[in-house]
Every structure is written in C-alpha cells, then in structure tokens.
Design a protein that fits this description.
Largest interface: A-B, 48 and 47 residues
Cofactor (chains A, B): Zn(2+)
Structural class of chain A: alpha+beta
CATH topology of the largest domain in chain A: Aminopeptidase
InterPro entries (chains A, B): ArgE/DapE_CS (IPR001261), Bact_exopeptidase_dim_dom (IPR036264), Peptidase_M20 (IPR002933), Peptidase_M20_dimer (IPR011650), Peptidase_M20A (IPR050072), Succinyl-DAP_deSuclase_DapE (IPR010174)
CATH class of the largest domain in chain A: Alpha Beta
EC number (chains A, B): 3.5.1.18
Number of strands of chain A: 19
Radius of gyration of chain A: 23 Å
GO molecular function, one term (chains A, B): succinyl-diaminopimelate desuccinylase activity
Oligomer: homodimer
Largest sheet of chain A: 8 strands, mixed
Helix content of chain A: 25-40%
CATH architecture of the largest domain in chain A: 3-Layer(aba) Sandwich
CATH superfamily of the largest domain in chain A: Zn peptidases
Keywords (chains A, B): Hydrolase, Metal-binding, Zinc
Strand content of chain A: 25-35%
Order of helices and strands of chain A: HHEEEEEHEHEEEEHHEEEEEHEHEHEEH
Number of helices of chain A: 10
Chain lengths: 368, 368
C-alpha cells in the first residue's frame, strides 16, 4: 500500500466497527481506501489467516486442513451517497437505528465478518473470507467475476454465506433474473390519416394484456417458497404528437425460481407471448441459486443458529448465484431490511448487528 | 424597411417566382427578409392594394366596394432546413419536380397568391391577401392569433382560401385535433417482489386494448368524408430495470370531424375509456372547420375551377379552422402533396404551380 488507510479496529464494539466502515465512503469504483483498511486490519489482527490482495478485493483464509470449508463474503462498495454520510444513530419507536449509506447494503455484514475473521482463529471448519468490490454495478465489473476466472481456488467451498441484508434471518438461494426487450413494429403515418399506417403502440396491447393477466408460479424448494414475477418494467414509443409510431417496445423483467434455468425461463416468456407479432430479445440474464439447505454444512449452520431464526427464500438476485454456479450451496445472512437497501433513508436496527454476530459466533463455537 | 430585401419579381414565370421565394430561407422566427421582399413587391407592383405591415406579416386588400370579400392566405415560414436549400429542379419518371424546403409547405401557394395579388386589379369580389409568419410553431405564436386579436377586421371575409398543399385539388374544412394525457398509477416495488406493488404499465393494458379495438367514425359533411382517428402517439413508463413502476402514461391524439366540438370530442374520449382507473387530462385542442361548400362564394369558387378538380375533405388540421372560428367557410387549395410537407425530400410537381394559378385566374376572371 502506497497511501495511508484510515484505521479500522476489528476488536472494537460491533456498532463502532460498523460505523468506522460506513464512514469510509466506498461508492463502486472508489473502494480502495476501505479495501486498504480491511487488509491492514486483517494483517495486524489475524495472523492465523493467509491474506491476499487482488485489486480492491481482500481475500483471506484459514488453512487448518479441516474436512469442510465455508466461504463468507461481503462486498465493500455501496450505491451513490445521498447526503447520508457520515453515519448517525437515532431512536425511533424505541428502536435504536444506525443510519447511513451502506449500513444495510452491506457494511453491517462486512463489519460482522471482519470481526469474526479476526476472532475465529481455530474454527471447526476452514473459513474463507472475501471482501470484494464492484458489486453494485454491471456483473462483468463485479470482482467476483474476475476472481472466479483468475483464482477459482479462492471460491472453492462446501457452503457459502453472503452477508446481504436479511434482517438477521436466513434467506436461502435466490431467484434468477432475465431482461427481455419486446418490440412491436408498425408503419408510420400522419395521425390525421391513421388508416395508411399501423400503430406500433397499439400492437403492444396484447403483450400488456397477457402480462396483466399472468399468474406467476410459486415454487417450493427445500421448504422455501420462491414467487416468480413477470413484469414490464419500462415501456416507450412515439415519434411526435402528430405521427402514428412505427415502433414501440417494452422491457420485461422475469424473476424465475432457482429450479429453472435461463434457457427454460426464456422459453417460458416466449410461450407466454406466443403468437403475438412482436420481436423478443433477451438482453440480460442470470441464473438463480438453489438454497441447498439439505446439504450437511447448511444443516450444521442452521442448527447452530437455533430455532428462533427466520428461514425464508431470497426473492431478489444476489451473488449467492455465483456460488451456486460453482456448485456451492449458499445463503444470505446479514443485518438490515433488504427493502431499505439503496434508499436515501438506508438504516439498520443496531440490534441486528449483535444478533448476526452472536449467531455466527455460536456456529463457529466462539459462543457458549 | 431599414435593410435591403432580396428582390422578388411577381411578374416572372410562376416557377421562377416560386424559386425566388424558396431561396429566401425563412424558417419560423426568421421570416423578416421574405416578408420584406413580399411587401416590397406588392408596393412596387400592386398600386390597387391597400398594404399594411404587421410584424413579419404582410396584409393587403382591394377596397372596391364589392358585395363579397374573399380572403387568400399563405404562411411565409417553413420548418427547419434539411440540406434542401437552395431549390433545384429534377425530372423523375417523366415528371418535372421543384425540390427544396418550403416548396410544398407552402411557398408554392405563396408564389401563386403573390402573383395573383399583383394581377387581379379589378376582381369581381374584393380580395384580402395575407402572407403571415410563425405557422409552423405553437398556435399562440402564429401571427394569425395576433391579427385576429388586434386587427380582426383584416380577417373578415365571406370565404377563405388557404394555400396549404392539396395537389392542386380542393380540400374542404379540416378535422379538429386534441391531445390527451392518460396516466395510470400503481405502487412501486422491487421487481423480485411484485406482489407488494402494483404495476402502472400493466394498468395501461385496457387503455391500449380499447384504442386497438376502436372503430372510428366517418362523418360525411357537404359530400366530403372526414375519417376520425384516435391513437396513442406516445407511451412511457419505467423507473429502473428492477423496479415495478408506479406511473405510466400514454399520449392520445384524437382527430375529430368538424361537426364535433372540442367539448364533445373530450366527452367522447372519456366515454371510450370509461370505467378504467386512469387519469385523463386534455393538454391541447383545436376545433376543426366545416367545409361550407354550400355557401354562395364557395359554390362560385368550385364552379370556376371546373369539373376536373378533385374535391376532398382535409384530414389534417390547418389554419382554415381559424377562419371557421370567425364564421368564414374556408378551403385548402395549393400545389404539392401534403404528405411531402416537412420531409427532407420536400418537392412539388412543377405542373401543380400552373394548375393552381390557372384555376384561380379562371375564378378571378383573368383567364378566358
């Protein structure tokens, strides 16, 4: 490191550590200072880890020769700041809340993982800790894409835990997601003489009709219910106020259960729109992740958490799908309500930090 | 006039005069040089006219005490130039064409009117000639709006002829036009959890469905068929690729027959969309114009033109509606195909110029 990094104290109270991490601004593309601080903290406080730096990603792992290896990962970056830094504390309706960009997505999870990476010197399973950059941007820029390509051995594990916000519950797997552009073509004409044209906006009518009437599948996998969603998330068309438009298009977003491949998902959307005179093009897709809750390391994790912990399906796509693609069952587990991610009022209940920390410590045998 | 205007020779061959007028560029807002030239030509060559200048509009009239007065009007401005100036001549498929911005809309008509204003020194009816500015822009900026307000006596007439392109046929009256914004509201949500939101784009589905199924009325008035049109000319909605949008809107354009008032037109659109949970707002409207072909001066005009002249309804809105609003029946009559107006390849058949000129001369008793 050629420049001074703000110091992090991984042995501080978990709330203090979380605030230290939040207050190092790290909007996607600007993660270096935080990566430096995380790396410095690990090098200073976790001699039991093999540590490697890759761009603005910090990789660390125990090499104890255990039978199983669990990977815990959290991204360092956030979406743009919205006047919500530095962090602050408040009490609302009797609940103490930590407020600030990244508190929920997902520096609370990063703080818990960083503290446990330092504390868990002799775990029963080998542990891999990944603090990575560029998650809140295009998938191709996500540093896990690079790590998987260049250092795949760092992602090898029997089970993975991603610190995405789950309100300190467990959210298993995730749905896949696909974007499709549906385009209708017509024939331009003056809007006072529409009979010589064909209105492309009107031609989208049956597309919207089928979407509005669509009944989405609910898939139950390992006891978790994944509710599919098929929606138009954008629509556009029109040339001028006096012209019948010759082109109109809708952007569809299909969120499909993790038992469905992107190929099957595309075929399904084409079936939903079958017979309509529109062009359909897939512009983006990512497979989901099966929860894998019946695997041995997942069962051990859930047992350690205890009865009181909520277990649900993860509806939104997360990087757990990257681990699933490598054959590693993965769950999301972190402080904060995922619905507050990216909002201007991003915050977490302070109690979620301790709840996550205690649960993971119990699983790692650090807690009575 | 404080500056030199390019000279126009209103006694030149009609093709030459048209080219002179086209070659004085006069995109809306830049009409002064052309208005100066028209005014100078009238002052030099038409001592029988009372001439007045108002902004960049040139007003002229005979004051012969005739029983009837006919108003002939043409706008001086054009839409922006598209590399199609100066004018040029070409022959395609054996047809000689005059090419250039404004040739069709509507400097051909202006040239014919300017020439006749000079030639018709002793017409059987009194004549008012208006060469006006700012037609191709917002109605409020159209100089006829100002003339009607400040000098309404200049618009008084028993019949009006507007030199808009009609391929040298007569197009009577015009349909009205109305724009409406139709907005659907929903509830935003993450697109992986659509059940907690309401998709506003999907809520536009029944709107498009009714528009697509709409059977437009055909109104026959004075033997002319006005075909109504109701269309979505624009549609928009969408917040982000992963968000269920809480707002979507369509812009509708309703072109209604001239026997229908704007109030009736609005009521009709509201009836078409009755029962749908959308907001409907009229953002712009203009009444149409009845053709008035059964009035005495109109009959005299049509008789003079002779049997060979095509007589149709005008489908697009034109300034004839302004005269209709003053109680003056009005028709469109000018060289060029209206479908070529505003196009990059704007042009007219050269023969249309002579056809319009000869027909009007016959009506004015200048032709055998």
């Amino acid at each position: 490191m050629n420049h001074a990094a703000p110091a992090l104290d991984p042995r501080a109270d978990i709330l203090d550590l979380t605030r230290q991490i939040i207050d190092i601004e790290s909007v996607s593309g600007n993660e270096r200072a935080l990566a430096d601080a995380v790396e410095a903290a690990l090098r200073a406080h976790a001699p039991h880890l093999r540590i490697e730096r890759d761009g603005d990603t910090v990789l660390a792992r125990t090499e104890l020769g255990r039978d199983q290896r669990v990977l815990l990962a959290g991204h360092l970056d956030t979406v743009p700041v919205a006047g919500n830094l530095p962090s602050s504390l408040r009490t609302r309706d009797g609940v103490e809340e930590l407020v600030g960009r990244g508190s929920c997505d997902m520096k609370g999870g990063v703080a818990v993982f960083l503290q446990l990476a330092v504390e868990a010197a002799e775990p029963d399973v080998d542990l891999t800790w990944i603090f990575y950059d560029h998650e809140e941007v295009a998938a191709a820029d996500n540093s896990l894409t690079r790590i998987a390509r260049e250092k795949p051995q760092w992602l090898e594990a029997d089970f993975a835990i991603l610190g995405e916000p789950t309100s300190a519950g467990v959210e298993g797997g995730c749905k896949g997601t696909m974007k499709l552009e549906v385009t209708a073509h017509g024939k331009a004409a003056h809007s006072a003489r529409d009979w010589v044209g064909e209105n492309a906006i009107h031609a989208l009518s049956p597309v919207l009709e089928r979407l509005a009437a669509y009944e989405a599948r609910r898939a139950v996998i390992d006891g978790l219910e994944y509710r599919e969603c098929l929606n138009a998330v954008a629509i556009s068309g029109g040339i001028a106020g006096n012209v019948i438009p010759d082109r109109a298009s809708a952007t569809l977003n299909y969120r499909f259960a993790p038992d469905t491949s992107p190929e099957q998902a595309e075929a399904h959307v084409r079936e939903v729109l079958a017979g309509l005179p529109v062009d359909i093009e897939v512009t983006d897709s990512a497979a989901g992740a099966l929860p894998g809750l019946d695997t041995a390391p997942a069962r051990a994790f859930l047992e350690a958490l205890g009865e009181g912990v909520r277990i649900d399906a993860k509806q939104g796509w997360t990087d757990v799908a990257r681990f699933a693609a490598l054959g590693t069952p993965a769950v999301n587990f972190g402080p904060g309500d995922p619905l507050l991610a990216h909002t201007d009022d991003e915050h977490i209940p302070v109690a979620d930090l301790a709840a996550c920390r205690t649960a993971l410590r119990r699983w790692l045998g650090l807690e009575a």
